[in-house]
Amino acid sequence: MSALPVLDWLAAPWGYEFMQRALLVTGVAAVVCALLSCWLVLIGWSLLGDAVAHAVLPGVVLAYLVGLPFAVGALVFGVGAVALIGLVRETSGLREDTSIGVVFTTLFALGIVLVSTTPSQVDLGHILFGNVLGVADVDIVQVVGLGVLTFAVLVLKRRDLTLYAFDRTHAHAVGISPRVLGGLLLGLLAVTVVVGLQAVGVVLVVAMLIIPGATAYLLTERMSRMLVIAPVLAGACAVVGLYASYYLDASSAGMVVVAQGIVFTAAYAFAPRTGLLRRSSRSSRSSQDGAEAGTAAADRELVAPRLAP
Q: How far apart are CA 121 and CA 268, in angstroms?
């Protein structure tokens, strides 16, 4: 059987310039979001990531109206949303998840109102669901520039951020300010959301900020491996998602996130130590031997104790 039909099938999407642009933007966004997701998952900031991803919408629209880069509006509203969440939590007595829900839904609704009432030659609805097949040169420059900057900062500060994620007291003891690192992560989160906007939009960018890190967490016990596995899987899912989008004539953003969801499901079921099948097998053997205690805890061994700052 000749391999040429297969090669033609694989090469066909990349003969179009809009697919090449989509691959570049989606790949950069997927890798950067995946790298940041490792810390968001380990710190327990998944819900906060969701909040920031939605809360930046009015900032992006307002930045567009006054002619500023999207990143400026997103950064202001992202940091402002976090500060507002803290203020509501501390002054109202409400739980943190309730405060997050109130703030991000209100800001997201404000963003939708601004999108619907803003006269524009640009379809701001693309901010909601992405427009990866129609990115302009300026969008590519913005995504690649911010993506490279965020990636470099995360890599250079990876040891400090990891120490912050697992032992803030130790970080403070060795002269690292937890407050500064927390602020740095929130700032990078806001910038990363802007990077992901062109690829999957505000609605789905939170998936790219959570799923890769959660998947890597199931597959390894070491932070250094998580930081490799998550971006590699996210990049592969970006390629697979664009292939599926091209041949199924479906939403590119949706297919990329669906691909990531399928990989997570596979890891959840088949991960060597924490997979559902592995735990079921151990539970069965444990019942037969009459040794029940400790099995579940051993399966869910945390990454933290093995990490070096």
A: 44
Residues in the chain: 309
Asked whether the beta carbons of 194 and 61 are under 8 A apart, the reply is no
CA distance 149 to 192: 10
Residue 251 phi, psi dihedral angles, 5° rounding: -60, 125
CA-based nearest residue to 81, from 48, 114, 109? 48
CA–CA separation, 181 vs 159, rounded Å? 11
pTM (two decimals)? 0.83
Rounding to the nearest 10 degrees, give the CA dihedral for residues 124, 127, 131, 135.
80
**Whole-number Cα distances in Å, 33 to 26, 44, 201, 249, 269:** 10, 16, 13, 25, 24
- Count CA atoms within 13 Å of residue 286 on its CB side: 14
**How many angstroms separate the CA atoms of 199 and 25, rounded?**
6
Per-residue confidence in pLDDT tens, the chain, 309 aa = 566 778 888 888 989 998 999 999 999 999 999 999 999 998 888 888 888 888 888 888 888 888 887 778 887 888 888 888 888 888 888 887 888 889 888 998 998 888 888 766 556 667 777 777 878 888 888 889 989 999 999 999 999 999 888 888 888 888 888 888 888 888 888 788 888 876 777 778 888 999 999 999 999 989 999 999 999 999 999 999 999 999 999 988 889 999 999 999 999 999 887 778 877 777 777 766 655 555 444 444 444 444 444
